[in-house]
Amino acid sequence: MKNLKKLLATVTVVGMLGVAGSAFAATAMTPAEVVSGLTGKTVEDLYKERSAGKTYGTIANEAGKLEEFKAQILEQKKTVLDQRVKDGRLTQEQADQIYNSIKNNQATCDGTGSAGIGKKYGAGFGQGSGMGLGQGAGRGAGMRNGGGFGQGMGAGRGMNR
Questions:
Q1: Domain containing 97: what range?
Q2: Which parts of the sequence are annotated with region: Disordered (predicted)?
Q3: For residue range 110-159, what is the model confidence (pLDDT) as tens digits?
């Protein structure tokens, strides 16, 4: 009976976490989705333009929607940062620093994406068309000279949605 209660509690917690993750995923939009909503272009067409070398900011700028794009992207990144603080992946201080850097950069943003703030802070907002879900640097055990174990280092890469 105790094992059944533990199982039910575990299933309940896992289910609640899944719902919370789904709710977050439903609110976060990719830059392509933001530009699509502003310009009326399909996400697929935007992916094609992006793969041809245009940034989403450039596409929004060409449509006369750069300021709206910047405001919505700032809001999206704030949502991602807040979730990462909630998940314990960032401190509030780190999130504030990243957010303020993005906000300050937007004052002179021309839509070309040249600032690279996500890369600078390791924020992992994603590359190309997706929001980042990257994990930071990791440590692991590595084999050394066929017999002993040594220290290993690894760097995680973000996955795009």
A1: 22-109
A2: 136-161
A3: 888 766 655 555 555 654 333 344 444 444 444 444 444 444 444 444 44
